[in-house]
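re: the backbone from monday

yeah here it is again, tokenized this time
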């Protein structure tokens, strides 16, 4: 089974310069110029979670307005997991309740899937950092034309 495509900023494999350029332009156009905004129907707590995640990921330049839905769902999931943890802390007997176990399991499954979608796992962040280092190295690398142009200035 093929792996899902990642953003060009998060790529780890080799692609041609032309393909990279086309993908960057497409991703940029799809991302839009506005950052994602939480839905109005989120609770105050869920909006806080949404903003925390957004603030951390906005610098990685991988989020766009279209990511609002997945961020909404992630905020709801995290809020629900925290609520379940609070219930368990107050009533430890609930940990053996099949309904609690089922709900916790479903929310954890959703949480891990959403983390994967948003590149929130340590592995995804490591891939992003490697890509950022490679991009910085490529910007610093001089072409033969740059060297010739420097000589012309002297």
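seq for it, each position gets an aa:
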């Amino acid at each position: 089974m093929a792996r899902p495509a990642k953003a060009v900023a998060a790529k780890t494999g080799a692609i041609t310069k032309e393909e990279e350029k086309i993908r960057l332009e497409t991703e940029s156009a799809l991302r839009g110029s506005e950052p994602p905004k939480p839905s109005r129907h989120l609770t105050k707590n869920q909006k806080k979670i949404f903003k925390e995640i957004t603030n951390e990921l906005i610098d990685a330049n991988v989020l766009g307005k279209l990511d609002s839905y997945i961020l909404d769902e992630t905020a709801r999931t995290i809020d629900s997991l925290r609520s379940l943890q609070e219930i368990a802390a107050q009533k430890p007997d609930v940990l053996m309740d099949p309904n609690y176990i089922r709900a916790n399991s479903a929310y954890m499954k959703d949480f891990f899937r959403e983390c994967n979608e948003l590149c929130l796992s340590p592995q995804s962040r490591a891939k992003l950092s490697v890509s950022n280092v490679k991009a910085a190295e490529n910007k610093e690398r001089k072409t033969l034309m740059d060297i010739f142009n420097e000589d012309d200035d002297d």
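The first helix runs from residue 17 to 31. The chain is about 65% helix and 0% strand.
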